[in-house]
Structures are given as structure tokens and as C-alpha cells.
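Residues pack. One example:


***
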Amino acid sequence: MSGAGLRRRTALATVTMVIGANLPDVDVLVYLVGDNADGLAFRRGWTHGVLAMCVLPFVLMAIMYAIGQAIERRRSRANRPGLRIPPRATQLLLVSALSIWSHPLFDMLNTYGVRLLMPFSGRWFYGDTLFIVDPWVWSALGFGATIAIQRARRVPVGADTATVMAHASRPARVALIAVAAYIAVMAATSQLGRIVAERQAVAQGLGPSLRLMVAPEPLNPFRRTVVRDLGPSYETGALTWWVTPRYAASGERVAALVDTAAQYRLAASTRAGRHFLVWSRFPFYEELPAGAATAMRLDDVRYGGPGRASFASVMIPAARTQ
């Protein structure tokens, strides 16, 4: 976005946008004072919600404007030229808002989700559109930004600045348009994939689902991971987009952690279990031997499976499961 032309609006525009694009993830500091379960319950909440989106742009603008003014005063005392573009409060607010708002919007595009309405509602929003680190998005934006920077640095002597900068910003703008089109196609095929996967599953005699997820996979935009909630269990499978889309179940059924089960009540009786349940979308449990007793592992089918722990695994000690 900076390379597409926003950096010409005010001093410190690029650094402001880099900070702003990452600022909502300040909630990662919860891991310094808590454990994995605390992180699951707190991440992508308060600092990603509508209230933060109203407040954070003004906070970042005020800080960056103060820094810009301090730089100008220091250069003035040293009899050095000021910044090429002066710091402008309104423009700093604009670039702060655009960069900060882009963060939860991109977070919403993956399967992890984001709580956009915090602190007023803890509802999670899932786009199921992009893999959490999509290499095609990174490559396109990185390439566009790099070419834009290189063009901006090669300014011929006596050239018209406006013409040169417009020429320099074109690769970044093309990259943004290409990524927007890619996201639109991925979103459309994910939504269409939900219909296709459900219809083919029912036609194959696998039964209707209560809800399902059709999620992107890394590198291959023509393939989706599918999770179908059948009530007492989850069915996993894959949807392949070629000439004729095809859904194939893996044959693996995972026992769901339903809210009427004793295991759910056990999980909800612990701090770690309650925090996990705040975050989970397709929760399941797995009983593990723990000496003479049995411990319970909580996980989510989005990222793990029986015998295959994910980053979100939470253990309920054996003493609590007896």
C-alpha cells in the first residue's frame, strides 16, 4: 500500500504502515504472562475488534506525529534540511487506519478466524479463503513492492517528480489488484466448494452435515481440506477443483467434543479447558494414558487429529479426569 502511492502523503508513512499492519498482534504478549490456553482465549480478540479499530489509529497517529515533529525540531537546531515531506496529522491518521484495519481483514480470511466485534461480542468470523501464510499472496505483494521501490530510487536528473512516482507506484498497484482478484476467486470457490462437498457427500451416502468447513491448503489453490460436522463425530476429506470438482472423504471419523458429553463438562470445569473452548471451532478429545490414570487432550480438527497434536493442544491432567 505504501509503494502504491500512500508513502507520498506524509513523512513517516511507510514506517507508520509497517507498524500499523502489525499493531493488532500486540496481544501476542499474553504468552509472556500466560500459557497456550491463555493465548487461545485472548488472541485475535480485544486488539482486533471494532473498539480497537476505532482507537488504535489515533494512538499510532499521535505517536508518529510526535516523532515527526521531534525529527523536524532536531534538524532545525542542527541547521539541516527538514524531512522531504512534512509530517501531516490527517494523512498519518489515514495511513494508520488503513494499515491497522487491513490486519483483522486479512486475519478473517483464514480458518483461524477473528473476533471482529470485541469487546461487545465474542463471535468468531471465519473466511476460509486463504491459507494462513499464502505463498502466492506474499510473492505477488513482495514482487510488486520491490519493483516499486527500485523504480522510485532510479529517478533521472531533471525528471518530473509526479510522473516518476506515478510510474514507480504502478507495480505495487498492479500487485494489489492481482491479489484482490486472487482473494475474490479463492473466496468464491471456497463458498461454492461448501455446496459441492455437501452434495457429493450426501450422494455418496455419507449423510448430511450440521456445518462444514472448506479450507485452503498451502501452495495448491485447486485443493481444499474439508471438515464436516456430523454431530457425534467429524468427517474429514478433500475437495479437488479440476474440470469436475470431486470430494473424497478420508474415511477418518473423529469423535467430537459435544456440549452434552461428560468430557465437555470435564473440560469446562478447568481453566485450560474453558479457554480452549472459547477458541475452538471443531473441538475433539483424545484420552491418553497417564500412569495408572487417563489424561485427556483437547484439540481442533482444523489443525490436528487423533495421535497428531497441533499448536492448539491443551492437556487436562489425569487428576481432573478421574
